[in-house]
Amino acid sequence: MDKVNFLFVGVGGQGTLTASDIAAQVGIDVGLDAKKSEVHGFAQRGGVVESHVRWAPQVGSPTAEKGTVDYLISFELLEAARWVDWLRPGGTVIVNTQQIAPMSVTVGDKTYPAPAPILEALAGRAGRVVTLDGLALATEAGTARAVNTVILGALSALLDTPAGVWEEAIVRRVPPKYTDVNRVAFQLGRAAVG
Amino acid sequence: MKQLLSGNEAIALGAWEAGVRYASAYPGTPSTEILEALAQYAGIVAEWASNEKVALDAAAGAAFGGARALAAMKHVGVNVAADSLMSLSYTGVRGGFVLVSADDPGAFSSQNEQDNRHYARFGKFPCLEPSDSEEARQFTRLAFDLSEQFECPVMLRSTTRLSHSKSPVDVTMPEGARELEPLPPFERRPDRYVIIPAIARRRHPEIEQRLLDVAAWGETAPVNRIEWGDRSVGIVTCGMAYQYARELFPGYSILKIGLVHPLPLQMIRDFAAQVDRLVIAEELDPIIEEQVRAMGIDCIGKDVFPLVGEFTLANVRAAALKAGLPVAAPDVAEVEAEPPALDVPPRPPALCPGCPHRAFFFTISRWQNKAIFSGDIGCYSMGVLPPFEAMDMLVSMGASIGMAHGVKQAGAQETPIAIIGDSTFFHSGLAPLANAVYNQSEIVVAVLDNRITAMTGGQEHPGTGITLQGAEGQRIEIAPIARAMGIEHVWEVDAWNLKAVRDTLRKAMEVKGGPSVVVVKGACVFTPYFQRRPVAAVDTEKCIACGSCFRVGCPAILKSDEIYATNGKHKSRIDPLLCTGCTVCMQVCPTQAIYQTGGE
Ligand SMILES: Cc1ncc(C[n+]2csc(CCOP(=O)(O)OP(=O)(O)O)c2C)c(N)n1
Ligand code: SF4
Ligand code: SF4
User: Fold this and answer.
1) Which of B188, B237, B251, B361 has its CA 20 to 30 A from that of B576?
2) Nearest CA in chain B to A10
């Protein structure tokens, strides 16, 4: 595992950028070079958020090429479908099943596709699709705000990196009073990957 | 110790290490975080200026006084500051002066893709361009040294991709950094700093000589370096393009240019002579390429690489392949982007639930036949999107008032409504308002005062009275300014009171003989002044699926699964997690089906 491309996607306000920050930090902590790059133009106003993380002995471009992403981590169901062609055929998708309706659906005439065809589209490209209900698991851990920790837990379970490195990188980023909740959320996320 | 820093954070670190005493900026993506980071360091005065020219002037004053000073802005901000910048090159500076220009190839959050390296050529001062965060830190320090060595302003050019990418930076404090003596007494140099025509004429040849001196320095300085490899292809590149070139042409020779103006022409000439095919890989305009061609050297450049938009691994690779260059294969088998198997609806940005701009746009969107909507830049630019579609022109910050004035003076039948935010009003709204009063145009100026610079992530400004470093000072109110300009008809109105907004704007449109001003007051939901109220809910018994509430464009209002039998349409429902209880949708519902809940 000397070269890994991650793409974190979601909707503004979901914590996508923090999660990608932590993933980049883990890359450094395990002794690799790492870069991350985000586009968050209208993040605050419910737009699409994308953030690339790359690990390698030496990283050049901070963004991966379309079709070469090893792990697509989507915080929202529809966004996974929007970005799936960035995935390397046979790559892995982690998708939080939360659904956030875009304005083109609520105000416009578009429809939010049903979960089944979305998951089918993902499976058509990915070697593995991991779905999880981040909100339920985070709530179970003690706070709805730990969704991104749950998702990082799941991601860590798929990678050949020590879990402790991830857990410490997460803990360094959260206020001390949320440390324990986040440790639980992390473990729930890991356990969610069968 | 290595730490992941964004390009902007690294620029701030470098400036602090370089001993910057004063920094000023007007926010603008992707430059905003530079000052936000600098403001955290001890021993620096870091300020939000009311606009970019003020920021540059203030930093210039500090540099005339002998201090190291920095001004930061997005690329189009340099246009605002350009008047001073061009002549600051003539005056030169005493303390190091660095202008950070954050360009936006790809126009992720800008009105154009201008390449600000042109300013360095235009103004005849040096420009440095880093390729990652570590270089951003080092080049910032170097920029201050260069500025003092050659007594000139230095531009540090960043781009969105650099400013908003994180890469490892050595944050160990280098020796000798940040040891400041008290500022020496002010040294008068009117022969330099008072740029009257006689002095400008004397200075001009000195400026030309200075540029030659900097170029000579650049020929041997380590900011420009050659990474020799296979010499069948040699690539000249700079900035982020270097990263793509390095990754796509492993093993080939690269001339990496850090000083992008003036170019090390001799170095390029020598490099070109030693490689079989010379390639120039630069994002946006062919600035290096034109200078290389002017030396009579043939190269591959914009004939293959994109002139428009941001470089990516994919588009640089595709261009290189087309030109028959030995580009590395992608990490995986080439995959044509398959058309997505399902129709993925777009996710456009929208005014937040509770946004104070909503009732205003809902109101004016009904007046397409009697008003012209002269827009400006801010969150309210989203007024152009459905469901409002109420913006007819938008060019640059502050332009709304001047454009409204011009179209009316030219004889427009409709009443122009200039739509401008509070931060933009202080940035560049005062002069055109004075102009409208002076020339007596019958326009309505609607100032959407949400007590923040929201679009760029929530910065303070003169209308909020709080400084970047947290001092609370004088808040400047907008209505009294308008009155002081002699405008008779000035109103303030509650942003969430639909009827008041409508009635007041109607009155304003009746005013004859000069401009009227309506200040629509309501704080952005991300400010501490915004007051949440109990969330709204839809009484499905009363809902007739008329769709009125959808036309306020609130992301909290969703289609319910329940269908109203009479028209077969979806009834509404409200997401209680998103709703802020602003009541605007309640005010448009014809059957009073939307009510405020108990508040839990
Ligand atoms: C010359 C220039 N400087 C900065 C920007 C970046 N920018 C876009 S809108 C905006 C300010 C918006 O504030 P305001 O007018 O108060 O509107 P709001 O977003 O709060 O609704 C800024 C700083 C720009 N586009 N052009
Ligand atoms: S950030 Fe503030 S001003 Fe901008 S859309 Fe949201 S509520 Fe409105
Ligand atoms: S009251 Fe209506 S318009 Fe206001 S935030 Fe709630 S749903 Fe949106």
Assistant:
1) B361
2) B347
| B588 reaches A (C-beta below 8 A) | no
Residues B85, B149, single domain; the answer is yes
Among B220, B247, B273, the domain boundary falls at: B220
Q: Which atom in ligand 2 lies closest to the alpha carbon of residue B525?
A: 7
Chain B residues whose CB is inside 8 A of the A24 CB are 4, 166
Q: Give the gap in angstroms from C-alpha B7 to the nearest C-alpha of chain A.
A: 10
Residue B311 has, within 13 A of its CA and on its CB side, a CA count of 29
The verdict on B188 and B263 lying in the same domain is no
Q: Which residues of A touch B335 (CB under 8 A)?
A: 67, 88-89
Q: How many other C-beta atoms are found inside a 10 Å radius of the C-beta of residue B53?
A: 23
Question: CA of A177 to nearest chain B CA: how many angstroms apart?
Answer: 23
B428 lines ligand 1 (CB under 6 A): no
pLDDT one-digit tens code per residue, B506-522: 999 999 999 999 999 99
Residues A23-67 have pLDDT tens digits of 999 999 999 999 999 987 665 677 889 999 999 999 999 999 999
Q: Does the beta carbon of B459 sit less than 6 angstroms from any atom of ligand 2?
A: no
Q: Are B8 and B130 in contact (CB under 8 A)?
A: no
Radius of gyration, alpha carbons of chain A: 16
> pLDDT grade, residue B499 (50/70/90)?
very high
Residue of A nearest to B244 (CA): A61
Task: Give the domains, in start order, of chain A with CATH numbers.
Answer: 4-193 (3.40.920.10)
State the DSSP code for B118.
H
pLDDT value at residue B600: 45
**Alpha carbons A20 and A75: distance in angstroms, whole number:** 11
Q: How many domains does chain B have?
A: 4
**Is residue B529 a part of any domain in this protein?**
no
Strands of B285-358, DSSP E: none
Spatial distance between the Cα atoms of B245 and B238, rounded to a whole number of angstroms: 9
Q: What value of ipTM does the predicted structure carry? A: 0.95
Do B399 and B289 lie in one domain? The reply is no
Q: Is any Cβ of chain A less than 8 angstroms from the Cβ of B167?
A: yes
Domain that holds residue B586: 536-596
User: Rounded distance, CA A66 to CA A70, Å?
Assistant: 11
For residue B557, the chain A residues in CB contact (below 8 A) are: 106
pTM above 0.95, yes or no: yes
